[in-house]
Amino acid sequence: MSHQESLTAYIAAFVSELVLSGITDVVVSPGSRSTPMAMVIAEHPDLKLHIHVDERSAAFFALGIAKASNRPVAILCTSGTAAANYYPAIVEAKYARVPLLVFTADRPHELRDVGAPQAIEQLHLYGHHVKWFTEMALPEKSDEMIRYARTVCARAVSIAAKAPAGPVHLNFPFREPLIPKIADDLFQTTERPEGYVKVVNGDIVITDEQFKEIAALLKGKEKGMIVCGHIADKTFGDRVTKLAETLKFPILVDPLSQLRSGIHSQENIIETYDTFLRNDDAKNALKPDIVIRFGAMPVSKALNIFLKENHSALQLVIDGGGGWRDPASLTTNMIYCHEATFCEKLQANVEIQSASSFLNKWKSVNQLTKDHMTMIRDTTQLSEAKLFCQLADMLPEGATLFVGNSMPIRDLDSFFLNNDKSITVMANRGANGIDGTVSTALGAALYSKPLYLVLGDLTFFHDLNGLLAAKLHNIDIQILVINNNGGGIFSFLPQSEHPTHFELLFGTPIDIDFEHAVKMYHGEFTRITDWDHLYSMMKADPPKGLKVIEMVTNREKNTKEHREFWRSVSREISNFVKGDHEWM
Amino acid sequence: MSHQESLTAYIAAFVSELVLSGITDVVVSPGSRSTPMAMVIAEHPDLKLHIHVDERSAAFFALGIAKASNRPVAILCTSGTAAANYYPAIVEAKYARVPLLVFTADRPHELRDVGAPQAIEQLHLYGHHVKWFTEMALPEKSDEMIRYARTVCARAVSIAAKAPAGPVHLNFPFREPLIPKIADDLFQTTERPEGYVKVVNGDIVITDEQFKEIAALLKGKEKGMIVCGHIADKTFGDRVTKLAETLKFPILVDPLSQLRSGIHSQENIIETYDTFLRNDDAKNALKPDIVIRFGAMPVSKALNIFLKENHSALQLVIDGGGGWRDPASLTTNMIYCHEATFCEKLQANVEIQSASSFLNKWKSVNQLTKDHMTMIRDTTQLSEAKLFCQLADMLPEGATLFVGNSMPIRDLDSFFLNNDKSITVMANRGANGIDGTVSTALGAALYSKPLYLVLGDLTFFHDLNGLLAAKLHNIDIQILVINNNGGGIFSFLPQSEHPTHFELLFGTPIDIDFEHAVKMYHGEFTRITDWDHLYSMMKADPPKGLKVIEMVTNREKNTKEHREFWRSVSREISNFVKGDHEWM
């Protein structure tokens, strides 16, 4: 048996099984050691191969595809530092629970740790940040090793996908010569042609008895609230809103919960809590006895402080992935159960409530805050706050909004209100980095159209290389860069009170004219001058190709505007809560 | 004792000790969790603080400073994926034996693995790729903990610097509030103000007895050769050339050995072996009985194949850092000894040889190959080979030449000839990646002036973000981009014989006009049209600011030119070796 035949048969078996396991997209970075895998992948008619020169961007691009397609995505690179460039996206995938299959090519054993070129220690290269690592055997063509290759492949796909989803790393040692033998029957499989192993991933659910116990906890608790952070499962929104209606609990919806937009019931939705939970009178009036929390930690610091202050309330955390999302150690009951199933089954176990004055209080304060946002909306100057107030109106039906970290996600949280459009909101909230945002959005844009990315100038800069994918793969995306020339978030933090090194260490203005970069990647660049200009740009037909709109703002004015709004709405809320009035 | 006082005293003690341990440069990326360390570093009058937004580039920038300054350099970033972006440069530092101090800020224990924002598992984040990892204690002000902070600092610096030099990782948990108390006496130290611990790093040396044994091995071996790869120690060149003269051995000098330029003896230097060791007649005439090899593995594949073919020769490998640099398992004697000391002491133990016909053969074939390079020099078209032939002539006295990986370093190896200028050659040859090259060169340019970077278009693209440092820190650098629109090296590899997916997977043209990027970073861009144009650009005054010269070449023509040259010189060599002639 020749080396080439073994190499080819083994990899073709692996790649066949990859497709039979449901994988459709592979992001490949050029390199020599990865040649056998890259060439076989390129031959498969059912795989979309996306080439990406910069491995850091490549991995985030794959992350975006996985987020938007709800399927694991494979990435492939050569040996050496190429593989180390995948690390940031792998860490994000781990914490954001996004399935990735990381395939790294490696030198064989005899060329490791002996000064061979591009040979680094790749075993456990990503440490604790992958769900599973395995060092593949050298290619062999025996029936046994073909079964091994197919089995490992199916197993890897299932581990990446099962809750909590995440990255899996397979390291492939390849000996030279690296060229596989490409023939027409490359993917012909005689044994189990429909797939070698079918893996059925179950969900974790609790028993009926346990549901009864939880229902008993809820009994007599009028002052209940539900908190929803990000959950990938699209069936969840409908289920949780039905549960909330039955219980007459307010649902505090993080922008990534996908509950601020869409066709589910909006009766109990509370979305301006990040503003009104800064006010002590509101917080006193809204103290809960019980909190039911789902999904990732919400973005709002005000909400998290409020939950902490109410540590004597029962706090139930429901997690279908088995983590421990509770940075303030508040949980009284940690419940490992698939979230949508939990809502459905709990609903069946509790009594329908007809009304709730507690819910009405939340709704009143929420409505008051929303009404007060005219203060932001009436601004004629370009303003970051107003942008997020107006976004839902500007975006077309069915749009996906990808939001950068740091200020944009916080402003989205504060100012993006409930709406009946079907808008999907995405962000990289696993580790909340500003890295890889452009690439993640571009990857998502392959499956979620039309896609609008809103991000700050430092975040845009950090992944400027990612724009190459837009050019090479003709991706349609509209990018709105909020350019306040530096790190806007620091103006809200205590660091800003220490001016000596503030601009050097935190403000970090980079004074870049992004028009050059956009032109380099053959995109259209527009620096908007006023709101009408922005509306006309945003409300035009969905983007074709790369379109970048820049909105120049000022960090100091921005901080001032936010603070004035919070002060003003806080006064209103205090007057309302303490005043002689009817709650809703 | 307040939290702020503890925080301040602990970090100030650490930073004081950092300076007293000889650290002068810190590269800081903006972030919140790293605030206490960043603010204290910014206050120290003896530290140069370089701010860098993109952590991947930041770490490579620090690597460049460390290479050029011969001192460990510290890098500091916030928690989360920021730290993961350091990984590629850390891996490179490990294998290139460059000292780095990696400081990552982290959430304290109670905020780990519980969904807190920007909190990822940072313990052992870089796995096997750092020489030492330690999780720092939370800041405390007790005398004991101040002693601890100072001791760990001195220890970390010494571990990073001692052979084999490399990266060290300290993870700092910080609790809020994060603002230190900046006062005039911040760095005043009463206990041991001259430095808390002075660490003396010894070198490994073998005994006189062991030297005698090695000298005995050499006795009667006329056909000896010395091979020098990269060694950071600047005293080595003079010592090894003296040893070679005593033994009358040829020295095969990798471009990174620093022995192709400079004022040391050039009597025994052989530099065109990458060309003539492709010829079987030459290889037959030049078979050694003994090989003495120093430093990193040489770039030349032809040389490595030649060494492998001569596996029955004694092959001595001298390594002052204690690694195992021998990918073909050829070593007969692995000698762990400081290299310059080895040369000096061995020289004292061997007899002076008066002449060697074996050396003369090497010199004859080398001279013939050099003479034949007129074939390359006479080209009037823009040519990658000719560029490297002419580089020594074009560069000013005292210049540093930083060379990109993939083709440029190989062409440098083949065509950059012995010269008496003092030119320092640098490259990232730890893991041979194309990543981070721009940033490493920019960091080096702070201490090695004037600096010229020569690299390919994909390498330039991969670290385009690195150019921001040139703009922000007004760094003087001249960059020559060889733009053959893709990965030129693959045209020399077997992949090129399989045209179906060649351009997609390996050629990877990106069709980018880099003029846009250079303008964005306020640099000067020139696309040269002919050789005179290039000479005038390169021979102008050393660069002020960012200057980028682009030379457009063609991958196919380039491969053809190389192959024709190799064939032609090979014919000459065969005629010469087999012919009736006098060796030198």
TrEMBL record, chains A, B:
Entry's transmembrane regions: none
Pathway: Quinol/quinone metabolism; 1,4-dihydroxy-2-naphthoate biosynthesis; 1,4-dihydroxy-2-naphthoate from chorismate: step 2/7; Quinol/quinone metabolism; menaquinone biosynthesis
Xref: Pfam families: TPP_enzyme_C, TPP_enzyme_M_2, TPP_enzyme_N
Catalytic activity as recorded in UniProt: isochorismate + 2-oxoglutarate + H(+) = 5-enolpyruvoyl-6-hydroxy-2-succinyl-cyclohex-3-ene-1-carboxylate + CO2
Annotated Gene3D superfamilies: 3.40.50.970, TPP-binding domain
Residue span(s) of domain Thiamine pyrophosphate enzyme TPP-binding: 429-539
Family, per entry: Belongs to the TPP enzyme family. MenD subfamily.
Subunit architecture: Homodimer.
Name listed for the protein in its UniProt record: 2-succinyl-5-enolpyruvyl-6-hydroxy-3-cyclohexene-1-carboxylate synthase
GN (gene name): menD
